Amino acid sequence: MSVGEVDAMLTEVPERFHRLMAVVGLASVGEFAAALDHFSSELREDAFGLLEEGLRVFITELKATHEERERVVAALLEANQEIEQKLLLIETQRHEIHQLSAPILDVWEGVLAVPIVGTLDRARALTVTDALLQRVVASRARAALVDLTGVEGVDASTADHLIQLVGAVKLVGCRAVITGVSPGVARTLSELTQTPRDLQCLSTLREGLRHCLTSRTDAQRAAPAPTRP
What we know:
The protein contains seven helices and five strands. The protein has two domains: 3-76; 102-222, Transcription Regulator spoIIAA (2-Layer Sandwich), CATH 3.30.750. α1 (3-28) runs parallel beside α3 (47-101) and α4 (122-139) packs parallel to α5 (156-171). The chain has a five-stranded mixed β-sheet, with helices on both faces. The protein is an alpha/beta fold and 229 residues long. It is rod-shaped, with a radius of gyration of 40 Å. Helices cover 64% and strands 12% of the residues. β2, α4 and β3 (143-151) form a beta-alpha-beta unit. Residues 66-93 form a coiled coil. This is STAS domain-containing protein. Keywords: Coiled coil, Phosphoprotein. It comes from Nannocystis punicea. Residues 101-189 form the STAS domain.
């Protein structure tokens, strides 16, 4: 190697070293494409050239890994959003089904009916109770028929929820009557230790409505006639 070649190499090495430092700095902040642009298109066959080529290969693989990770993260975020949307849809449908399976009907003046279909767990009992209380207060209803004809089964827990519902309705000045009572339901209710003595249970919704109308008529007849001035 001539003296001129040595001088040229000594002048070029610091330049190549600073370029590599710039490459490392760009790669450290995720600017992989910009870092790769700093490499020469020609491979220098010297010790420094081997270092440059090794660093170029490393940054290329690091760039590919980073892009793959971003793709996976984006796919996970999209999947998570889809799951959240499906959960929201399921919750909305569940709420609508509960509303449809326990509608509150105005069957007569001052008389509401709540035909319950399916199972009656704690969460659903609370929902039905809250909705019924709001309707009772808004309509000033004097009687509410809770019909169990469509209920799949009544265990001790379900029966307890019914008793609490009846008690809550009574607190706002409304009398609740349980209808659609089968022999099994009647037996379950009778086994409760805190069953109200005035709890009214009838076998059909028709009988419940007739009972409410008869009680209303009897109450009107028993009321004292207004005195004339």
